[in-house]
Amino acid sequence: MNRDTRLSDVLHVLLHMAMVDGPLTSEVLARSMGTNPAVFRRTMAGLRETGIVSSDKGHGGGWRLTRPLNKITLLAVYEALGRPNLFAIGNRSRHPECLVERNVNAVLADTMAEASTLFYRRFGEITLDNIAGSHEFGH
Amino acid sequence: MNRDTRLSDVLHVLLHMAMVDGPLTSEVLARSMGTNPAVFRRTMAGLRETGIVSSDKGHGGGWRLTRPLNKITLLAVYEALGRPNLFAIGNRSRHPECLVERNVNAVLADTMAEASTLFYRRFGEITLDNIAGSHEFGH
DNA sequence: GTCGACGTATCAGTTCATGTTACATGATCG
DNA sequence: CGATCATGTAACATGAACTGATACGTCGAC
């Protein structure tokens, strides 16, 4: 099963955007993401809608950050992507009426919920300037 | 991305096996798992190799548990399946030499490592008899 | 020796994310 | 105002991976 790398890809691009003054085009940023402009725009749509970045058409257009890196948490980026599924494992309810199956599902769901909480907490603590510099943010 | 439900499926089957005296055939157990015998055998191969279950050919053959449920941890089952990938997210190293990308990867890898530890700890604490009864094992 | 069961290789089918193309919209510049 | 440049997005193509399916080999009980 292939992993969803959009979060990693988007962070990479955002950090590069922060290093440049003017806007950058999908053409350029897609290359930095290793894909093509249409995929890049599709991926960034949520970040535009939640206001992390803005995009302009026409001459001199392109993408830019709307606020400094220390005002953007990893959690905000994750949520802007639509909170993609974190886990590769899960339940399949073939027999929803079966008590055993319900117990199994509850155990796995509990553990995954705990792990989710951990992800959210950590993501909320990390701002993008923490990532831009050397890897130092509290442990 | 579709979730890997093998762990959930296998637990379900193991608990049902524990409720029966004699061995059960792939035919029967596959039906309980909602699949066909070949897929069932493929899925259970690791559990046979690690000794959680045994299988016998010929008349009166089939699958049986080799030890009671309270001697089987969820972790043992997970490992017998080959420690399937837990996470749906991940890094893609398109630019391994890029410092920014290395920082991004490190942040995500750290968080995933922490979550892995949590999964392993919880899986190690839970034995299958905890799941068989009502859902009570410590919180 | 026949039958019943597992073991497993191999191929087919499906699904889903990603890649691709195409075209519409809108802004800027001359 | 028209040309150009950029985004927005729909629609379709591609490809990889997992599951399902089939076939056949092995082995044990009767």
Automatic annotation (TrEMBL), chains A, B:
<dbReference type="GO" id="GO:0003700">
    <property type="term" value="F:DNA-binding transcription factor activity"/>
</dbReference>
<dbReference type="InterPro" id="IPR036388">
    <property type="entry name" value="WH-like_DNA-bd_sf"/>
</dbReference>
<dbReference type="Pfam" id="PF02082">
    <property type="entry name" value="Rrf2"/>
</dbReference>
<dbReference type="GO" id="GO:0005829">
    <property type="term" value="C:cytosol"/>
</dbReference>
<dbReference type="InterPro" id="IPR036390">
    <property type="entry name" value="WH_DNA-bd_sf"/>
</dbReference>
<dbReference type="InterPro" id="IPR000944">
    <property type="entry name" value="Tscrpt_reg_Rrf2"/>
</dbReference>
<protein>
    <submittedName>
        <fullName>Transcriptional regulator</fullName>
    </submittedName>
</protein>
